[in-house]
Amino acid sequence: MIDALILDLDGVVRHWDRDHFVSTAASFGLTTDDFAAVAFEHELLAAAMTGRLSAEAWGDEIGKRIGESHGCDPGAVSAAFAALDWSIDDDVVSVVRDVRVAGRAKVALFSNASTRLEADLDACGLGTAFDVVFNSARLGVAKPDPQAFVAVAAALDTVPERCLFVDDTLPNVDGARAAGMQAEQFTDAASLRSLLERAGLL
Questions:
Q1: Helices marked H in the chain — which ranges?
Q2: Contact 164, 4 (CB under 8 A)
Q3: Taking the model in full, what pTM does it have?
Q4: Where does 4-15+87-198 sit in CATH, by number?
Q5: Distance between CA atoms of residues 109 and 117, nearest Å
Q6: Segment (H or E) for 183
Q7: CA-CA distance, 23 to 39, in Å (whole number)?
Q8: Tens of pLDDT along 82-124?
Q9: Residue range(s) of every CATH 3.40.50.1000 domain in the chain
């Protein structure tokens, strides 16, 4: 019996535009590795994903660090980072919609994200696409920490064993399983639909 379907955002519903990332880095004379090494440095990323840094402060710190190391304008770097482009997988959104219409389980989104997640969802028309949205920056704990999944299950008024979690990143799947959830790795919308049909949610 599954009370809740919990989906990841990035790599499942939302896909970042790598070409735009490459061109943005190049506009400052950086390689993608240079840009990523600063923007996603472990401690900095963890602070942003657990809400210890706001999205704005994260961007400012990226701009500051790149400015210091590569002689770029910090404000321009911060603005460019905030403007990185992405797209939504409409086929996955269609699956989400069908699960909600079927009404056999709650449908939640759980993303390791900054404090701008909710604004991003509103901007692309997904603000009400899920029954509930869980943002690691609001929870204060991020995937793959099993405690993050325990907290999400509790907020859904169920237990981990009655949740089905889907994420494109295997360590996050493993973290969910460690918490007791049923969990599968995402590949594409068609496979997701098949999984949910077998699970009795469609």
A1: 18-27, 32-39, 42-49, 55-70, 74-82, 90-102, 117-123, 136-139, 146-155, 170-178, 189-198
A2: yes
A3: 0.95
A4: 3.40.50.1000
A5: 11
A6: strand 182-185
A7: 15
A8: 999 999 999 999 999 999 999 999 999 999 999 999 999 999 9
A9: 4-15+87-198
